[in-house]
Amino acid sequence: MTQESTLHNRAVWFDIPVADLDRADAFYAAVLACAVDRVSMPGMNFSVLEHDEGNGGCLVEKPNEIAADRGLLVYFNAEGRIRDAVAKAREHGGVVVEDIHSIGPHGFRAIVLDSEGNRIALHSMVDA
Questions:
Q1: How far apart are CA 25 and CA 115, in angstroms?
Q2: At 39, is the secondary structure helix, strand, or coil?
Q3: CB 123 within 8 A of CB 107
Q4: Do the bridges between strand 13-18 and strand 56-61 make them parallel or antiparallel, or are there none, so unpaired?
Q5: Which class for 14: exposed (0-12), middle (13-18), buried (19 or more C-beta within 10 A)?
Q6: How far is residue 35's CA from residue 47's CA, in Å, rounded to a whole number?
Q7: Packing angle between helix 21-32 and helix 82-91, nearest 10 degrees?
Q8: Among 86, 124, 119, 114, which Cα is nearest to 27's?
């Protein structure tokens, strides 16, 4: 995380609970078109989503914390490729809850359940 991120972003990290780390790794790598790196530590396995200079997060094996119908809604960047991201979500076990739709001057979003059953949003300023 860069100093710029810590100074200007309200959210600095997120953990996404998953039941099957391999399946979740494949889902997020395809949908977000980014690298997903596995980390193994004594008593804990998790995967970090590529985030370079921006804010990031990880996938953590915690199946009892998965929620499809409540809680926070994390928006993932699918800028310029939201249609591809939604298609990849379907191909990798996701379920589209709300297809791509306008959110006014804030662009477009789709709400999907990831491969583990978590509710997430995909966002782009353009419908492409």
A1: 9
A2: strand
A3: yes
A4: parallel
A5: middle
A6: 10
A7: 160
A8: 114
pLDDT tens-digit series, residues 54-88: 888 999 999 999 988 888 899 999 999 999 999 99
Question: pTM, whole model, 2 decimals?
Answer: 0.89
Query: Buried b / exposed e across 37-57, counting CB within 10 Å, b at 16+?
Result: eeeeeeeeebbebebeeebbb
> Which DSSP string corresponds to 60-125?
EE-GGG--SSSS--EEEE-TT-HHHHHHHHHHTT-EEEEEEEE-GGG-EEEEEE-TTS-EEEEEES
The H-or-E segment that residue 29 falls in is helix 21-32
Dihedral angle sign, alpha carbons of residues 35, 76, 83, 117: positive
